C-alpha cells in the first residue's frame, strides 16, 4: 500500500528521495523534499551529520517516505508505540546526534565572539549565548496526535511552521522525529553546568559536561510525545525560513573568520584577517579603485549610464585595435601610409627566413604573424572609418 500511495498526486516518491539523498544528501536536500525542514537544516550545518549520519540513512529513507505520505501501516505502528510507551523511549542515535550537533553549534558560537574589544565595546558577555546555542539543539520535536479513546487512532506529523513552534527551538536535532520537549530543561541544564568553565579551563571537558547536563535534562524531564495536528506550509515560506536560519549560521562563520582567521603574507608572517581588511581599505590600490568608482558615477550622472557602457566597451578593445597599435608601435593619429611603412619595416626585420636557429625561428615566426594580424586589424579599422565618413558626407549633401 505504501508503494501504491507514493504514486498518488502530492505523495512523495521513494525513488526521488533516494536520488536526492545521493546527490544532495549531505546538504539535506532529501529532507527538504520530504518536508523534514529541521532535519534538512541540521544536515546542512553539519554536512550530513558529519557524513556518518548521511550514510546511515540509506536504510531509513523508506520510513521517512512512509512518514511523509502518512502511510496507514506507519500510522498504526506509531499509534501502538504512543499507546505502549507513555514517554518516548531512549534512542542512542538521537542522543548522540544531540551531543554532536550541540557541541558544534556551541563551539561556533564561542568562536564567533570577539576575543578583544570591538570598536571600544567589550563583547565577552556574549559568551552567555553558548549555553543557549547548545540548548537550542534539544528544543522541540515533531508531533504525534494519538487518541486512546477512539477505535481508530489519529496520528499526524507536524511541519516546521507549527503555531506553537517558537523560534527558540524549531530547527535542531530535538525537532526531528515524533517527539517534543520544552526549551526550559535543556537550557537549565546547560546554564547549571556553564560555571564549570571558570574552574576547568580545558574547553573539551567543560563543553562535554555542559552538553551531557543539557541532553540528560531534556531526555529525563522534557521529552514527551506531541499531540498537535500538522499544518502545511507554502514552499516559499519554507525556503525563506531556512534562508534566514542559514544567514544566521553563516554570520557565525563570518564572525569567526574575521576575528580569529589569519592569512600568510609573502614573507611567511601570519596577519589577522581583521587587520588585513583594515589595511586593505587604506591601501593605495583600494583608494584608486574607490576614486575611479566615484568618478565613474559622476560621469554617469552627467552623461548617462549608456555612455558609461560605451566607454567600457571601447576600453575592453573588442576589435583588438589597442593591442595592434602597441604591436606596431604607432598611435591612433597615424595615417594609413605611416602604418603601412612601419608594417613593412617590422616585417623585414622579423621575417623567419633571416633566422637559422630552430627555436629562434619559431619565436620570430610568432612575432611575424603577430605583426601581420596587427596590420590587418588596423587596416580594416581605417577602411571602416573611411567608408562611414564617406557615407555621412553623402547623406549631408543629399539633405
UniProtKB/TrEMBL annotation:
Pfam families: DnaJ, TM2. GO terms for cellular component: membrane. This is DnaJ homolog subfamily C member 22. InterPro entries: DnaJ_domain, J_dom_sf, TM2. It comes from Spodoptera litura. The chain crosses the membrane at residues 14-34, 40-59, 95-113, 196-218, 239-259. Residues 381-390 have a biased composition (Basic residues). It is found in: Membrane. It is a multi-pass membrane protein. It comes from the Eukaryota. Residues 323-395 form the J domain. The gene is LOC111360774. May function as a co-chaperone.
